[in-house]
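Class, carefully examine what follows:
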Amino acid sequence: MSIQLGTAAPDFEAQTTEGPINFHDWMGDSWAVLFSHPKDFTPICTTELGYMAKIKPEFDRRGVKIIGLSVDPLDRHEGWAKDIEETQGAAPNYPIISDADFNVSKLYGMLPATVEGDPVPRTPADNQTVRNVFVIGPDKKVKLILVYPMTTGRNFDEVLRVIDSLQLTAKHKVATPVNWQQGENVIIAGSVTNDEAKELFGEWDEPKPYIRVVPQPQ
């Protein structure tokens, strides 16, 4: 299955470290971040899961639920969580999906539909494409897709930055420029006419007719 921006995030049922869930029901009216891992007890993923535990309050503050996934049985997740706490200083404080049947990985296009069998003998390299970040809106539509190689740790500060932009631009008719950070100037969306922009924003800086810069709406 091909997942693209703006498509519906597939619903699923799964076992997690916090019990069984139905994904859409678990999300409720919140935003969500689903981030996946090819295998338990992998070094880079260990650092990522620990960091996400530390910055979970930042996601909470934005009304965003976070959930991990790894292609391994649930009992291995429990042992891995202890290693994460020991080495990273924080244990996962969010659910981690056991995708031992590959169902979610297939639904989200991270593994081929033909994959089957026992997940335990599979190596991280066998599942190396299960290194995605999906940001999903309250409308259950996919808003962001990031795919990382196994050798490069993910930048979850960047995920927070993108969520700030997504939430701002969903509420106001603006877009955020390169390297934008919370509180910086934004650009009036191209779909907004000048007459409408005058009603919404008053005046703006215009280095070019298609670049209309205004302070970030509050």
User: Anything to note?
Assistant: The CA atoms of residues 158 and 179 lie 10 Å apart.
